[in-house]
Amino acid sequence: EAQVTQNPRYLITVTGKKLTVTCSQNMNHEYMSWYRQDPGLGLRQIYYSMNVEVTDKGDVPEGYKVSRKEKRNFPLILESPSPNQTSLYFCASSLSSSGEQFFGPGTRLTVL
Amino acid sequence: GQQLNQSPQSMFIQEGEDVSMNCTSSSIFNTWLWYKQDPGEGPVLLIALYKAGELTSNGRLTAQFGITRKDSFLNISASIPSDVGIYFCAGRNYGQNFVFGPGTRLSVLP
């Protein structure tokens, strides 16, 4: 089944404790992206990747890192999480930057 | 970054009624997408539009690419309880990433 998977689905952590949210797609998509969703703000892009080893900042990249060592995986790294990063995070992928994006199920992160 | 506006922010309708919502931008787009998000899930693509004036249907859903290229509309006919959720629009222009609207929350009363 074609899908985007994220892990973990739920995470509660404390300020400053490094964490990684994994994202994997099995559709051989070149373009992958991370979004955060906050009430009333919709989906805001954090980082995106056009292909392996190519990543770029989105609209809200501060406090986040990403890597794209393999085509299928696009992990989101929070080196020192802070409470304002409490949010619902979605990974998405598409054939290209102009293509329709397929979303993962989301990761709800709470930073205390 | 760019912002899209969606209207209404939320709506309560009776089962069986038709629904209309829209999305507007200050910039022109060459692609509009409409997504639906169920509680606890990621957004799922409903309809994609690629040409100004285009009208596309998916079952009871119909979406239109506005002729000015700055807006798009989604209509749902004969609503049912499973239509409940948040509807997002997304748009992009050539060479740019997609931007998403804040969503329209739909509630269907039995």
Explain what you see.
The complex is a heterodimer of chains A (112) and B (110). In chain A, 0% of the residues lie in helices and 51% in strands. The radius of gyration of chain A is 13 Å and the shape is globular. In chain A, strands 2, 4, 5, 6, 9, 10 and 11 form a seven-stranded mixed β-sheet that branches. Chain A has a four-stranded antiparallel β-sheet with strand order 1-3-8-7, with no helix packed on it. The termini of chain A are far apart. Chain A is built from no helices and eleven strands. With 112 residues, chain A is mainly beta. In chain A, a hairpin with a 7-residue loop joins strand 9 (87-94) and strand 10 (102-103). By secondary structure, chain B is mostly beta strands. Helices cover 0% and strands 55% of the residues of chain B. Chain B has no helices and eleven strands. Chain B has strands spanning 4-7, 10-14, 19-25, 31-37, 44-49, 55-58, 61-65, 71-76, 85-92, 99-100, 104-109. In chain B, strands 2, 4, 5, 9, 10 and 11 form a six-stranded mixed β-sheet that branches. Chain B has a five-stranded antiparallel β-sheet with strand order 1-3-8-7-6, with no helix packed on it. In chain B, a hairpin with a 5-residue loop joins strand 7 and strand 8 (71-76). The mean pLDDT of chain B is 94. Chains A and B meet through strand 5 and strand 10 of A and strand 4, strand 5, strand 9 and strand 10 of B.
